[in-house]
Write a structure and sequence with these properties.
Layout lengths: L2 E7 L3 H13 L5 E7 L6 H15 L5 E5 L6 H14 L4 E4 L11 H7 L5 E5 L6 E3 L3 H18 L11 E4 H6 L12 H11 L4 E5 L1 E3 L11 H14 L2 H29 L5 H24 L7 H30 L5 H28 L4
Parallel strand pairs: 1-2, 1-4, 2-3, 5-8, 6-9
Antiparallel strand pairs: 4-7, 5-7
Helix pairs in contact: 1-2, 5-8, 9-10, 10-11, 11-12
This protein binds guanosine-5'-diphosphate-alpha-D-mannose and manganese (II) ion.
Length: about 375
Amino acid sequence: MKTIICIPTYNEAENIKKMLPAISDLKLKNVDILIIDDNSPDGTSAAVKRLNSKFKIQNSKFKIFVLDRKKKEGLGKAYVAGFKWALKKGYDRIISMDADFSHNPKYLPKMIKKSKDYDVVVGSRYVKGGKIVGWEWYRYVNSYGANFFTRLLLRLKPKDATAGFKCYSRKFLKSLDLDKIIAGGYAFQVEMINLAQEGGFSITEFPITFVDRQVGESKISGELSRSAKIIFKLALRKKTYRQFIKFGIVGLLGTIIDLGVYNLLVFKFNFNIYTSRIISFTLAATANYILNRIWTFRSKEKKIAKQYIQFFFISIIGLGLNLIIMKSLQNIVSGIEEELLRINIPVVIAITIVLFWNFLANRYWTFKKH
Ligand code: GDD
Ligand code: MN
C-alpha cells in the first residue's frame, strides 16, 4: 500500500519548510508527499525543491514531489490536479492536508491506520474530542454555521462536512470523474464528502484539534458566497429536492385548475359554491395525481386506483389541515394592524406546511418505491 500526502500551497514557504521535516520525522513507511503549488509569489515551490535535495541525501525512501501550476486557481482545482497525478502514479491512499499546521502531522499514523478499513477517513473537528484552537469567535461561528447548513441541506452524515484533513482510497477516487467536480474553491471538501456518501463508500471520522495557523494568512476570505452557490447546486442535484420542486409546480397548477373550474361553475353554470368546490377540487386533485405520477415521481406502480385513492385522501387531509392552521393562527395575527399582512400571513404559513405534508406523505406513502 502506497500513500501520498497532497498538500496544496499558496504562499506557504515558511510553513512548508517546517512541515516537511515534521512529516519526515514520523518515519512513515511507503508514504510520499506531493506539494501542489500555484506559483506562489513567496517562492514556496523553490523552497520545497531545496529541501528535497537535502532529504534525498538523508533518506532515500521518502519522496517529495512538486506539482507546479501556472496560477492561483483555488483549493479545489489544486486538489483535482494533485489527485489526478496521484492516481496516475498508482498510489493506493491519497491524503489531503493543509500546509499551515492546522492539520497536525502527528495524526497521520492514526489516519493511515484507519484508512485500511474505510474509503474516506476524516480528521474531524466536530466529533466528540475534536476541537478548534485559536480562531476568533466570528470564524468559529462562520465555520460552524456553514457546516450546519451544509449538513442539513445535503443531508450529510459526517459531523465535519467541511473538513480538509482527509484520506481517500484509490477505489473511491477512481470511481469519480474528477473533471466533473464543480467546486473550484473550498467547497471542494464538501463536494468530495457528498460524492463519497452518495456513492455508498465507507466513511469514518476521528477527532482532531485544529489549530489556527501561526504564520501566513488564510485564503478563505470571500469564499463564503462562492461555496454557498456550489452547495445549493449540489442540493438541486439530489432527487428528493428535484421532486419537491416538481411537486410544488404541480401543486400550483392544481390551484389554478381548482380556482378556474370553481369560478366557471359558479358564474357560468350557476352552481352553488359547495357543489362547485367539490367538483373543482376533485378535478384539480385528479390532474395533480396524474402529473405527480408521471412527472414528479415517475411511478411504475400497477395499482393505479389504490394510488389515486391514497393521493386523494392525503389531499383532503391537507385541505383540512389548511383550515385548522388558518383558524389557529387567527388569534396570533389579530394584533397585526396592516390588513394585507393579517390576511395573508396565515395563508402563506398554511400553504407552506401543507405543501410539506402533502409532499412527504405522497413521497413516502403513495409513491413509495418497493
Ligand atoms: N495551490 C493552492 N491554490 N493552494 C491553496 C489555494 C489555492 O488557490 N488556496 C488555499 N490553498 C492552500 C493553503 O496554502 C493551505 O495549505 C491550504 O490550502 C488551506 O488553506 P487555508 O487558507 O489555510 O485554509 P483555512 O485554514 O482557512 O481553511 C481550512 O479549514 C476549512 C474549513 O473550515 C482548510 O482545512 C479548508 O480545507 C477547510 O475547508
Ligand atoms: Mn489554514
